[in-house]
Write a structure and sequence with these properties.
mainly alpha
């Protein structure tokens, strides 16, 4: 099936919306879960910097995924696959502290997984290949 550069498949639309949604949930969770309790301004400043940097990087990746950049789709997949085993200890700790946030984490992971499945379906992959041309 041929796609022109303007007609993004519904699978990509849904995946991009899911990814922006999980990013939004993540940012809200950062503020709910981690109120600033540090008195060390350097630690607080560094934490804020890292949070803003990660947020901006993820927005860029999702934006590029939506624009048909295959490198962004593959980069997000690699980060997702690397992040899954690393998130298990964090998830267990979160559940022990506050089960609500643990459930939110699981929902985020499942939504990101759904987005990855949608982004790598044949229809989506064909569109990414066409966008290279």
């Amino acid at each position: 099936m041929e796609y022109n550069k303007e007609s993004r498949p519904k699978t990509v639309d849904i995946a991009v919306n899911l990814l922006y949604g999980t990013l939004g949930i993540g940012m809200l969770r950062v503020f709910w879960e981690n109120p600033v309790q540090q008195t060390n301004k350097l630690v607080v400043g560094f934490s804020v910097f890292i949070t803003i940097f990660v947020f901006a990087f993820m927005v860029l990746l999702i934006f590029k995924i939506g624009k048909g950049r295959n490198w962004a789709r593959v980069t997000f997949l690699i980060l997702f696959v690397i992040g899954i085993p690393l998130s298990v200890p964090v998830l267990l700790l979160t559940f022990s502290k506050n089960p609500f946030f643990g459930i939110i984490n699981i929902i985020q992971i499942l939504l990101q997984l759904a987005a990855m499945v949608l982004l790598f379906q044949k229809r989506s992959s064909d569109w990414y290949k066409n966008m290279k041309r």
